[in-house]
Write a structure and sequence with these properties.
alpha+beta, two-stranded antiparallel ribbon, 5 helices, 6 strands
Amino acid sequence: MMPGPIPVAEAPDGALAYAIPLPPEAMPPVRPRDLVNAWHAAREAADAGAWGKPRLLRFTRDDGTTTDLALADADAACWAEAVDLVAGLGSLPGMALCLRLLALVEVMGRARWMAGFFTIGAEGAEFHPALLRAAAEMPLDAAARFDELALRRLLSVSLPAGAAP
């Protein structure tokens, strides 16, 4: 069955509100190259100061319960705007791409052991293929983040030289 569009409405304060018909843990995988392309689009948008509107995401589970997530800080709104332009947040693949990109950025910032899996410099970013595959395919948690322990286990079979054990 082909997933339909994600309903989106503009809230009175200008934020965009999305009604996502599944929980973050059920987001579909994406292609690693799409993750890289989204990263580049988001960095270009940030460099250009193309700040987007805040986004309010409401995920609905099969039992009818919901989880709300706000992409309200300037960086998250900017990156979401960039992904919306290249992949469309009104679709499950586009929303999955955005959430995976934001989860990747978040885990890279808190998991110091990942330092050997990526390099960010003035010329751009480089990612270890194993990190990209993991970020593209592993499930998100209920807060739309990557489980750091599960990610570490997944990547431990391919730790690059110089990475912390």
